[in-house]
Amino acid sequence: MIQRCFGCDARFPLDRIIYTCDRCGAVLEIALEATDFDHPKFAGRGVWRYAPLLPGDAANAVTMAEGATGLHRCDRIGPELGISELYLKNEGENPTGSFKDRGMTVGLTRAVELGATAVACASTGNTSASMAAYAARRGIRAIVLIPGGQVATGKLAQAIVHGAEIVQIDGNFDDAMRLVHELSVEDGDIYLLNSINPFRLEGQKTLAFEVCETLGRCPDVVVLPMGNAGNISAIWKGFKEFRRAGLIDRLPRMIGVQAEGAAPIVETLRSRSETCRVERPETIATAIRIGAPVNWRKAVAAIQESGGDCGTVTDDEIVAAQRDLARREGRFVEPASAAPIAFLRKHGVVEASTVVCVATGHGLKDPDMVLKTSPTLIRAEPTLSSLREALGQA
Ligand code: F0G
To answer: 290-308: string of b/e by CB count within 10 Å (b at 16+)?
Structure first.
């Protein structure tokens, strides 16, 4: 395996710490060798089941049994949307409650192999929660930069309890991302674990492998929220690699969803622009409140190569989809993770009978969002008559 520039194809050895190309400044990816695809043997469960297609030594892995999440059929919402098989890939079932754990096990394992003394990230919450937990497991220093006042309570509590050094930046995620990148480039001992890190994305590609193995085939369409756009890039890479290994015979269409107030990639694709930025991103789905996604070129490629699509949903549509999933399918996901269902309800999908929505994070990450919009709770005296009255059965 080798590190390859996504822009100009320049190659860098696997053991060099580098986040963007020396020559053209683009992001990097891990390129596998042709022989890696020759009958890879998978064993066990979760991310490291796919060790033959991953960088790093499974024997040294810093792991917490991540991956192997459920692929749940949405029997009530699916038919209503005209989709005969609608599935939720529930990443909230990961150890820290989001898909980040898939990437973090590979990223942290890499950090240890490189001898890094500290790991760092900028985060809208989930990356920091995951990195803090994996760093704690290994006993390595964790530095987290968060946009002040913009991280959901559950995620912040996770970073705190796992003992990360947390710095609130007076700015948004994009400011924090720029700063932590500069810090880790200047200080070689601090290893950057945002999705600009191609090793982390290798872990995240295993979601595609699991979906294919669970279904026994490739789905028609995969829908997921986009923030920094690492996940859509990673999952698309995963599908392509599974096909290259001869394990599926076609590829899905990738659909990326953004919130209306934070939709730089959707705007770039619509305007065919060569830049990707919105200045003041805004959405209640704080996980994807990002204006300058580092992986935008990879995301654009994933959507275009796959013949997929992208689109926006409003905050109200996100909240409605979150309730819908919770009340009709029994699945509580965080606001960003409800965006795919909101997209399907709003825009529909053509010629697809098997659709997989990626529910990226657990609903308990962000309880305030639910409580803010809830009706006042009913009260009762501790007597049966008062209870009956409260229930309207007096
Ligand atoms: N859904 C959730 C729940 C997320 O936490 C994120 C990203 C995304 C979707 C978007 O994924 O960035 O790969 O396109 N959260 C990052 C963080 C930015 O810091 O936790 P992406």
So the answer is: bbbbbbbbbbbbbbeebeb
